[in-house]
Amino acid sequence: MTFAFSSPKRTLVIILLAVTALIFLLSTQAMATMFGLFKKYDVHLSPEVHGVITKEGKPVVGLTVFRGLTYGDDKELVDEAITDNKGRFSFEEKNIRSRKPGSMFDESRIRQVIVAKAENKQYMLWYTQAIGIEPNKALTEHLKKLNCELENSEEKIRFNSYEYPQAGYLVHSICRW
Q: Residue 93 is part of a domain; what is its CATH number?
């Protein structure tokens, strides 16, 4: 079999191809790192939540309250709390780590749902979609003081956003502030 290159030239071509492939791989890794494809970001799903549930003005004791949090199309994270003898419930702040914010095509929102279930009925205490991955001041202020009367009708309530004034928030809730 005959080759177009002599043995020393063939070795040089192989070395040049190997070096070129190595440089390409390293530059691709640098580009991926530069654009954050492999970096994980802190994503703030929810601030602390504090609320009180009443029915006809009296505390509802032992009621199960569920909180569901979703970032983009990720799996929903669900936790629960039980109201105490004064009708109070709370949830801790929730954060996750995700690579999604590093994608230049990511437009994910954070979905926050808080519901109470009583007597085969579900009550919407809070539903909204948050913008961004940082804490939102308006949402944090409102979630610190949920006053939920089970007899209230569910309303759509608009809040201004400090961080995104052009957008704001639409919250579905039976709670008041």
A: 2.60.40.1120
Distance CA 27, CA 51 (A): 52
- Alpha-carbon distance of 73 to 9, in angstroms, equals 54
SS3 142: helix
- Extended beta strands in 92-165, E state: 94-98, 110-118, 121-130, 146-149, 155-159
Question: How far is residue 114's CA from residue 156's CA, in Å, rounded to a whole number?
Answer: 15
119: left (phi over 0), alpha (psi -120 to 50) or beta: left
Q: What is the pLDDT of residues 43-93, one digit of tens each?
A: 999 999 999 999 999 999 999 999 999 998 889 999 999 999 999 999 999
- Distances from the Cα of 153 to the Cαs of 16, 116, 156, in angstroms? 73, 14, 10
Given a cut of 70, is residue 153 above it in pLDDT?
A: yes
**Residue with tokens 């709390």, as numbered in its chain:** 81
Judge if 133 and 101 occupy the same domain: yes
| CA-CA-CA-CA torsion sign (132, 134, 137, 143) | positive
